[in-house]
Amino acid sequence: MATRRKLTDYERRRRQDIFVLTTGALILVAALTMSGALSWAVGFTAFLLVAGGGYAYHLGVSATSRVATPAGKSGTSKSGKKATRKARQALIDALGQPALVIDASGQLAAYNAQASAIFGLPPVRPGLSASSLRHPDLLAEVDRVLGAGGQGACEVAPAREPSQSWLAQITALDSNKVGTRAALIVMVDQAPIRRAEKARADFLANASHELRTPLTSISGFLETMQGPARDDTEAWPRFIEIMSDQTRHMKAMITDLLSLSRIELSEHQAPTEKVDLVVVAGETVEALRQVGHQKSQAIELDAPDETLPVIAVESELRQVVLNLVGNALKYSEDGAKITVSVGRSRDLEAAEAMASRGWSGARRATLLSPPPLMGPTLNQAAWLRVRDQGPGIASEFLPRLGERFFRVDQSRGGPVEGTGLGLAIVKHIMAHHRGGFAVESCEGDGTAFSIWLPAPPARSI
Fold it and tell me: What are 450's strand-pairing partners?
């Protein structure tokens, strides 16, 4: 009975096949003997040989099953468990996110290096207790999932880095042994989401504040004109002028906000057009010369005589040059000179060095670094640098010059009005163009803003 119980379906089918073949052969020998084709002596001998051979083969199959099956099962079980552990650890290591596996006994069955860094775990060691994670809420959720199955989630702030925020996504994994489970935990970094939420909240708060100020001013003057100054018509022109200034300020701010929103919507898709940076810089400088003449300011363009194509959106590139040169005119004294320099470099790194490290003794800050280029590497880059002769910017303010609503005049000590979005727009446009943005400044001597962006290879121009 024990032998039959251990036989597999394959072995039973082999026995049935042997029985059928042996029986068929015996019937054939008997038929040939009775028909006279074989003598009785030969037929009897053949009958014994066929019957004996079938019976011997049957005994051989049974013996092989009794000896080979238990040993095979044992070896397969041990090697299978080892292979399963290796495959599970390899899978966990291959994940791009921190991941752990906790079994039903409360032990860490597997975890990768990223998870080890978050929870301060030693190198992977079988049998390590899950309490090493030192997060009761996470362990309680794991116990719930292990008991009920399905999925769960838990917010995790590691004891080693309380400022970090992770979402632990827990999934029950049924093991081969019925009645037990293991839990797979995948950690998802919540820091970018938290930063985006804070940035959005700050943006809404700043935008509402910036718009509320001119609206309050306009509303106050209207109430004054309707009330105490109703008959003081001589003061009305001054009130109307102030309200007009505030209205222009709100209009400019709304325009900048819409422009910034439009740029952010397309920021994920890199430009593909070719635009001549020399032409864009030259036309923008010519358009602003009249503005400079009002304060006896001169704009000097230092650009090569040849064309300098870059991969850009022309309207956005013009807006960058307009904002940078416009700022230089705004913050420079009467009679000052603004220098706009344009050049080509072999790559983005060289362009950064030429554009933003051309002033010895100045303080410098990189406001935006270009991301690593994907796909075919471009072997050309272009840069533009705008230097003014204004009062300069204090070094502690330099890293903030790409922030929304940060007023540059606050750091320069002047009464110049602005929306506080101009440099933020430049920064986002350069992010859209996969370029860089930097500032150099020396207090009392001026400021230089520089940008650099990819250009098509010279052979494709």
Answer: 385, 438
Please report the DSSP string for 104-122 in residue order. TTSEEEEE-HHHHHHHT--
In order of 14, 27, 125, the CA distances from 17 in angstroms are: 5, 16, 51
User: Token pair of 324, please?
Assistant: 């940078």
Tell me which amino acid residue 349 is.
E
* pLDDT tens digits along 14-24: 666 666 666 76
Query: Can you point out the beta strands (E) in 17-129?
Result: 99-103, 107-111, 128-129
Q: Compare 227 and 47 and report the one with higher pLDDT.
A: 227
Question: Tens digits of per-residue pLDDT, 157-181?
Answer: 776 666 677 888 888 876 544 455 7
Least confident of 37-46, 303-312, 451-460: 37-46
Neighbours of 137 (CB within 10 A): 12
The candidate with the shortest Cα–Cα distance to 429, out of 309, 317, 287, is 317
**How many CA atoms lie within 13 Å of 31's alpha carbon, on the beta-carbon side?**
6
Q: How many CB atoms lie within 10 A of CB 318?
A: 18
The backbone torsions φ and ψ at residue 57, rounded to the nearest 5 degrees and listed phi first, read: -65, -40
71 phi-psi bin (left φ>0, alpha ψ -120 to 50, beta other): alpha
Q: Is 378 exposed, middle or buried (0-12, 13-18, 19+ CB in 10 A)?
A: middle
- Say how far apart CA 423 and CA 437 lie, in whole Å: 10
Radius of gyration of the chain (CA): 41
Q: 305 with 416: CB under 8 angstroms?
A: no
User: Quick check: 427 and 437 in contact, CB under 8 A?
Assistant: yes
- Asked if 394 and 443 count as a contact pair (C-beta separation under 8 A), the reply is yes
Q: What is the dihedral of CA 251, 254, 260, 263, to 10 degrees?
A: -80
In terms of phi and psi (left: phi > 0; alpha: psi -120 to 50; beta: otherwise), the region of 445 is: alpha
Gap between the Cα atoms of 432 and 429, Å rounded? 5
Rounded CA separation 441/358 (Å):
11
